[in-house]
Design goal:
With 478 residues, this protein is α/β, with parallel strands linked by helices. Helices cover 26% and strands 29% of the residues. α7 links the parallel β9 and β10. The protein binds alpha-L-arabinofuranose (AHR).
Length: 478
Amino acid sequence: MKATIRLGKEISAIDPRLYSSFLEHMGRAIYTGIYEPEHPTADEDGFRQDVMELIRPLRLSHIRYPGGNFLSGYRWKDGIGPKSERPVRPELAWFAIEPNQVGTDEFLRWCEKMDIQPMLGVNLGTGTPQDAADLLEYVNGTLPTDYAELRRKNGHEAPYNVRLWCLGNEMDGPWQICAKTAEEYARLACETAKMMKWMDPSVELVACGSSFRDMPTFKSWEQTVLRHCYEHIDYLSLHQYYTNNDDDIPSFLARSLEMEDSIREIAGLCDEEQQRRGSEHRVFLSFDEWNVWYHFQKAGVFPPKWIYARPIEEEQYDDVDPLVTGSMMNTLLRNADRVKIACLAQLVNVIAPIMTEPGGRAWVQTIYRPFLCASRYGRGVSLQPEVETEHYDCAIRKKVPYLDCAAVRCEDGSLSLFLVNRSEERMQVRLPLEQRFGEAALQTLRGTDLEDQPLSLDDTEARFSLPPRSWSLLRLLP
Ligand code: AHR
């Protein structure tokens, strides 16, 4: 198998927020994930430092919080003030007991420690526009008003200055607490957005798109939301998880092409609405949940309901999954002109690159390293790779290119290529170069680590080969 990659035009500067993630009050993401006061590595606030040390290298820009489906039943006032006085609640999104020992202040404190920006959600399931405005006042308020004073009383004198906010979560999903029709959601989101921007004009708002591509509401939902909310929102969200329930690896590896279709189609709807209005305002995309997710459901072993830190959706990723998440990351990079925020969902224990044992160790999974490498070596300008390669047909799609690639000209003048060989054969690759590079390195993912590969580099070309069904990183240094 052979392929040639030519580097084409600049797509866009890459927004650092493309390297964001997600922590929900779900399963063991928070309790026994990032927070476990009894753990030997817990700091003075009860946060596990072994987990912090695994998160740091990911250099995350933002973390979306507190959900997810959890958001649609969340009463944020339950999670502030003295911990001993906080209510314990039955949590209806994931059928667990919610002790409210981590709430807004604790999460924002954790973010400060981690030097990560929060992306907070407001509840538009059971919540009201007033609840959302009150939360914003609590978090960012600068006046001597009730909720801003309450934050001061609870120990945080200065406003947190949280800029990025989600207007609800997956509100078209029948699984959602108080799901809405498109019209219901669009009106509610519009009025909430108005109140939030009046309260704090510096905030940026993300409205919910459809929950995923196969929803019957896909596209018509977005059109309705854009029609009602266009001037009041800054981003429209997309979510997508891929499965391999049929053990059909060629189709599984082709799924990222559908992600590309979704981005183009929803960006097209944003453009249409902009033109229809003759507006100067541009709405961008926030791909704020993406990953592979199916192993836990497929195994079919479920923990009892109504327990604390109910251990659900603890995916155990295999060696094919990082090829899919790698090509999803490549898709985000190739669409960096429209996608400005993207959250790998999630971060710890739940559909996650990082796992923990309660009271015990923490470790990383196979999907960890491709994301880490992209975050580390994928900052700068995204370049259009023109890939010549053979194609295959599979159950879900025709003409799937065997090679998937994203290319980034980094801020330090180096070049990074993120490569997925979808084929079962080794692939010989040529990369003609218009510029001279001094050094090059190729590394391929093996398990959770990288393995060096040979390559040749002269003034005009790099040549290398990619192992069958592999994810690789090529770095060219000036
Ligand atoms: O990330 C897990 C869940 O997936 C989220 O709570 C929800 O938004 C989505 O359906």
